Amino acid sequence: MTHRIFIDGAAGTTGLEIRERLRGRKDLELVQLGEAERKDAPARAKALNEADLVILCLPDDAARQAVALIADPGVRVIDASTAHRTAPGWVYGFAELEPGQRARIAASKRVSNPGCWATAFIALVHPLVRAGVVPADFPVTVNGVSGYSGGGKSMIEEFEKKDSPAYVETVVRAYALTLSHKHIPEMQMHASLAHPPVFAPGVGRFYRGMLVEVPLQLWALPGKPKAADLHKVLAEAYRGEKLVEVAAPEGTSIDAEGLRNTNLMKLFVLGNDKTGQARLVALLDNLGKGAGGAAVQNLNIMLGLPETEGLL
C-alpha cells in the first residue's frame, strides 16, 4: 500500500529536511504543489484533504489555519510548528517519552512534533522526575547552543548572506533574553515540572547540530543521589531505543556538531561526586531528531511502518 503524504510548507528549512528523508521511498507518494498552487487556498485545501497524512511546516497561525481547512476526518496530521504542542486533543510526538507513547502516537489523528530544545531537555529531565530523583517542583535550568539553521530562513540569512543588511559576524550569541521562549511551555508540561525551567539558549556559527545541558546540584536533591544513579535511570528509560542512546563521552569534550546529518540523540551524565554536582548533556542534530527526523519517525509510527525507516 502506498500512502499519500502532503508537506504543507515544503519549501521551508524543516519541510526541505523532511522531504529529503522521504525522497525515494516506495511506500510513500509525495503530493507536491507548484509555486502558484502553494499560494492558492483551494489548491492547498484539496491537497490537505486528499492526503493520507499531512505534515505542517508552517508558522503557528498558518498551521492552525491549515488544520481548520481539513474537512476529511480520515486525514492524519503531524504539526511541526509550536501551535499544538500543549494543545488538548493532540498527542506529543516524542515516541521515547514514556511507555505507551508510541501507542498513543499510532492511534492519534493529530500529533505535534516536538521542538529541538524541548526534545533534548525532556529526554534528560522527564525520566528523572518520573523516577522521583528530581522533584517536580525542583528549580531546573537549561542552557546550550544550536546551529543557526534552527532559526529558519531569516537566521540563515543573518549568518550566511554577506550582502544582506541582516548579516552578522557573530560567533556565538545568547538569545531569549526576556526569559520567554516558545519551547518553554512544552518543556514544562512534558517534563512534568511544576514550574518553567530557566532557559538560556545560544546560537553559534555552524549550520546544524546542538548541545543542550541541564546542570544539577545533586546535594540539593532528596537523597543526594550520585551521578551514577542518574545515569542508571536514564539508561533504563532508553534501553533498547534505536534513536536515543545514553553514552559516555569520547575524549574530554563533546562537539555540538557530533551528530549532524543524523537522526540520533545521545545523552550524557557527567558528574563530580566530591562536589555533589552533575551536568546532563544531550547531543543531537536540530534538523534531525530535533525536527525532520522526529517527524519521519512519527509518520512511520502513525502509518504502521517500520519506525526507523529512512532514518538509520
The helix/strand class is alpha/beta
Q: How many strands? A: 13
Q: What composes the largest sheet?
A: 7 strands, mixed
Overall geometric form: globular
Strand order of the largest sheet: 8-9-7-10-13-12-11
CATH topology of the largest domain: Dihydrodipicolinate Reductase, domain 2
Radius of gyration: 20 Å
List unreliable stretches of 5+ residues: none
Total separate domains: 2
Q: How far is it from the N-terminal to the C-terminal residue, by CA?
A: 22 Å
**CATH C-level label of the largest domain:** Alpha Beta
Quick one: CATH superfamily of the largest domain? Dihydrodipicolinate Reductase, domain 2
Order of helices and strands: EHEHHEHEEHEHEHEHEEHEEEH
Could you report the average pLDDT, rounded to the nearest whole number? 96
Helical stretch tally:
10
Walkthrough of the structure:
The chain is built from 10 helices and 13 strands. With 312 residues, the protein is an alpha/beta fold. The chain has 2 domains: 3-113 and 291-302, NAD(P)-binding Rossmann-like Domain (Rossmann fold); 116-286, 2-Layer Sandwich (Dihydrodipicolinate Reductase, domain 2). The model has no long low-confidence stretch (mean pLDDT 96).
